[in-house]
Amino acid sequence: MTEKRNRKRPAGSFADRLASDAVRLLEQASRLEPGGARGASEESASQQDGAGINARLITPASRLPI
Questions:
Q1: Whole-model pTM above 0.85?
Q2: pLDDT-above-70 percentage for the chain
Q3: CA–CA separation, 40 vs 1, rounded Å?
């Protein structure tokens, strides 16, 4: 007999989680001294912008044909 997996739903929407990660990364970058680590953290925060990613996932026209 197969057992059901214990699945949890994420606390918020995908866009909300990406936005909170971006805020966290920007706060982390502000505490670092200017240089490579700070630049990498700021770049990572800018990539966490969920608007573009979320729009691509929701829009049916952007999905690849099977």
A1: no
A2: 76
A3: 48
